[in-house]
Specification:
This protein has one helix spanning about 65-70, and strands at about 1-10, 25-30, 40-45, 55-60, 80-85, 85-90, 95. The chain is mostly beta strands.
Length: about 100
């Protein structure tokens, strides 16, 4: 799992049938306190949490668990947004997002 910022939407004309009516987003990993980028953006499926560009999110980066949450073992998914973060408490520091 990692903390990331949603930086964009992704649209595709053709998708696997298990991704119909699912939102695809670009998420960039960030440091949860400083918000500095920690890597390149990755494609992630919104797991029903209604995140969008600018949201700070919790991302599950493990395919088997992502498919289990979706309830579809055939879904071609590795990365799933499973929560929107309101605040982080880390090493005595606090960062509020909401």
């Amino acid at each position: 799992m990692f903390v990331g910022e949603v930086v964009g939407n992704v649209w595709g004309q053709y998708k696997h049938r298990s991704l119909n009516n699912q939102r695809l987003l670009l998420v960039r990993p960030i440091d949860p306190i400083t918000e500095k980028p920690l890597g390149e953006a990755v494609l992630a499926l919104d797991g029903g949490v209604q995140s969008g560009p600018g949201s700070i999110v919790l991302v599950l980066d493990e395919g088997g668990s992502a498919r289990q949450i979706l309830g579809d073992e055939t879904a071609p998914v590795r990365t799933l947004i499973c929560g929107i973060i309101d605040s982080v408490h880390l090493r005595g520091k606090e960062k509020r997002y909401a």
